[in-house]
Amino acid sequence: MNIKERLIKIAVIASTSIMLTVPLLTNVSRIAHAAGAIKNLDTDSTWVISETTKLDSLTIPEGASITAPKGYRVTMTVNGIETGKVLETWQGVDYKFAPGAYKGAIVLTVSEANDVSRESGGGGAEDGKAIVYPFRQALYLDKDGINYEKSVLAAVQGKKPSGFEIKNINIKSKGTFYRDPASLGGTGFNGIYAAGGEYNVKNIKIDLFGDGRSDFVGFGSAIVASGKGTRLVLDNVTINTQGIVRSGVIATGGSNLIVKNSRIKVKNGVLPPDYINTMDTSQMRSSLWISGINGTTRATNLLGNGTLATYINSYISFEGWGGLSTDGARDSKLFAINCKIDNTGKSGYGQYNNSNAVTKLLGCEFKVATLGSGTDSGSVFLGDSTREAVESLNEELGLGLTSKELKSIPVKHTIINSGFQGVLWHGSGCALTITGGTVINSKDTLFVDKSAYTDIQVDGSQGARLNPGNGIIMQVMDDDEPTYNRQTGTWVEYYEDPSGPVTKDDSHDIYTVKNTDALAKFSNIELKGDFYNSARGGHKKNSMGEGTTNISKNLGITFDNARITGIISASNALHYYNGKYYPKIGKDDMMVFNRVINTPGTAVNNGVIVSLNNGSKWTVTGTSYLTKLALDSSSSVTARKGLGVSMTVNGIKTDIRPGQTYTGAIAVSVN
Q1: DSSP output for 457-523
Q2: Would you tell me which of 31, 186, 239, 398 could form a disulfide with 222, CB atoms 3.0–4.6 Å apart?
Q3: H or E stretch covering 309
Q4: 598 strand-pairing partners
Q5: How far apart are the first and last CA of the chain?
Q6: Which DSSP state fits 150?
Q7: Residues 93/132, Cβ–Cβ less than 8 Å
Q8: Which residue in 202, 193, 187 sits closest to 241, CA to CA?
Q9: Where would I find the beta strands (DSSP E) of 41-163?
């Protein structure tokens, strides 16, 4: 017998309790209701519900439970708002109903299970173990349309949704935040889960208050697009969430997500006092303290292989952690056109690139507290939302923007305003291209490379500008992330600044650039600021505490028709913050990560290789130590007006002449 075909069953129970059970219907309004329906559970009892049930009052004492038959889930709504479910244990993924008295229009919906399996990852004792997440959602969408058996329509307010065009509905979930071990907060309820089909969702609002469970699968997020063949278009969608990993939008599994004219706003939750910061994705519910960023909720995340996510003319705000994120993906692409990314709290990044994702940001405005962009692999492109660029993406990605929509998109520059640093590289590294009228303003160092590969291409011919607040355009430094222990799922307690003289790495050539070095090219631009390479080099265990890696790194800079005023030098660096030296950095000093001061000095393993081409001019403002300097016939090295510049190579005074290349221990000084 099909679940839709079940007859309404009414059982009147003696005394003060009346229970009314009804079949799982596709239209919640058809559920029969008897006034005064009450259910009071006994302590330590288990109520197994096989049919959707409607009540006016429900009392759940401590130890009592409500379950559904195998393969089904029970979800409670009160006055159309999902509520009541809390985690059984903080580390687990199973939920129970919280003890308490519930009153109002109560619906206990029995829906088919939507179990999503994912292997844990990122380290820790559970690394590689399959975790099954018991999803529940207001709407489950697949290739055939809305799957009503897996949906909780009682949580959908407005006209009954149907077909592949879903409009004018509201979805609400209200849970609790974590407070103590006896009251584990969180609902783990999703608004929309799309697992197939092509859908247009318009004019809807989703409000989720209370914790989620994992943004590596989207468990507890407002909207999830999952799987190949899923194309989900969100237009004029408003999302508000607050809680731990209560993300706004998740794209995963090769889906194609398109968000336009929408508002996504997420706020932090409250972590338990004994929460252990970890990279084990089955337990990761906050940003990592080793990143110098805190927060419990990313606004968006892109996951899986071949996934596409595009945000157009939308507002994305987050209190902490991050705005546009990619994580655990491969061959995936993230695009944003004319979006505003707003960090409303005191910590967070605007965009993070992971797992070789390709990211393009056109005409976007970032206001972030900590970091404009963080990258460990892949490529990032920053540019203008020109008509040609937008039309090209529309065709490439099949965005479906009409000619009217294309014409309505104004041309804007990408602008990043960061309260700390502009772009940071760690891990394997990432390519960065800056074009058009892109502007990056940072209160501290603009580019920070923590011993990673970089391929920076900056073209200022159309007005791109780089404005470092502390006068340092680029800093290459040692990776100051403490080593991670996979067995315990934790980091060593401190990162400690190395001391003593640097040991020469004889295997590293400080006079030649390689594609594993920190490389940057600046064309058609005027720059004011310094460049430092303080990487000590040598060999050490990688950040996961496994094996050894060569961390010797050259800084290779090419200037093409560029003007640069500042110091370019090898250096020694120490961690300073607000005038205080920090020889050790732990989780209580997370604001000190990436913050160093430099003392220029002769290179050991930190080569600095500078090329001046096509009429470039370097105005030296302080003694700079290089390992190679190449000038074409039209380029020059000079000092500010009224001052002179001199150079020694291996201790021998040498004239700086156009068209010449100098190699060795080079010191360029201002007289």
Answers
A1: EEE-TT--EEEETTSEEEEEE---PPPEETTTTEE-S-EE---SPPPP-TT--TTS--TTSEEEEEE
A2: 239
A3: strand 308-312
A4: 573
A5: 93
A6: G
A7: yes
A8: 187
A9: 46-48, 52-60, 65-67, 72-78, 81-83, 85-87, 95-97, 100-112, 114-119, 130-135, 137-142, 145-146, 156-158
Distance CA 551, CA 480 (A): 12
6 confidence band (pLDDT: 50, 70, 90): very low
CA separation, residue 106 to residues 9, 136, 215, 557 (Å): 17, 17, 29, 66
- pTM above 0.85? yes
Cβ atoms of 129 and 154 closer than 8 Å: no
Residue 403 CA: distances (Å) to CA of 165, 202, 470: 21, 19, 45
Pairing of strands 19-22, 371-375: unpaired
Q: Is 42 exposed, middle or buried (0-12, 13-18, 19+ CB in 10 A)?
A: exposed
Which tokens sit at 608? Answer: 């600095």
pLDDT tens column, 519-574: 999 999 999 999 999 999 987 666 555 555 678 999 999 999 999 999 999 999 99
Contact between 227 and 196 (Cβ < 8 Å): yes
Cα separations (Å) of 297 from 103, 325, 480, 589, 639? 31, 11, 24, 21, 49
Residue found by looking up tokens 């006896």 in the block: 182
The strand pairing partners of 527, in sequence order, are: 564
631: helix, strand or coil: strand
The one-letter amino acid at 462: Q
Four-residue CA torsion sign, 575, 579, 580, 581? positive
